[in-house]
Amino acid sequence: MIVTTKKGDGGKTSLYDGSRVDKTDLRIELNGELDACNALLGLCKVMCSENHPEVSSPFHPKAFETIQRELMDLMALIARDNDKTKEQTLQQAVERMEAYINKVAKGKAFEFMLPGRDKTDALLHIVRTKVRTCERRLVALMAADDGYAPVLRIYLNRLSDYLFCMILDRWK
Description:
By secondary structure, the protein is mainly alpha-helical. Helices cover about 65% and strands about 5% of the residues. It is built from 5 helices and 2 strands.
């Protein structure tokens, strides 16, 4: 594997389809934010794995890994991978997250929460806010280029709600 190609030294990089774009391109900016979000989810996966051995738990490492893989699919779609099965995967993820959100939030009034009850709480809030940043970047990209499926925006919106409900779920 060649890691250093020097092709990016001039400020350009490649999209999935091989086209070259500036590193300031909205797609590259968004994918950089999604990459950071994915790294933070990796930290969540490590921190939560110590306390949640049950596979069905939303805090189990496999749950975080599922989200990480979905984000990688999202990143590929942003970079112009036209694989419709990735869009279907994201749609199924939206449905999965909505079921959890409805279960956790049922009968509760919305309230803002101060982050930092413990390390995991603080980290989940950081990831949630990073997802919101990604969502704003995606909205900007979709305003400039209408070639993206709405499920990408819906997925990020639900993911931030899902993370918020994970925080609620920890303190019920």
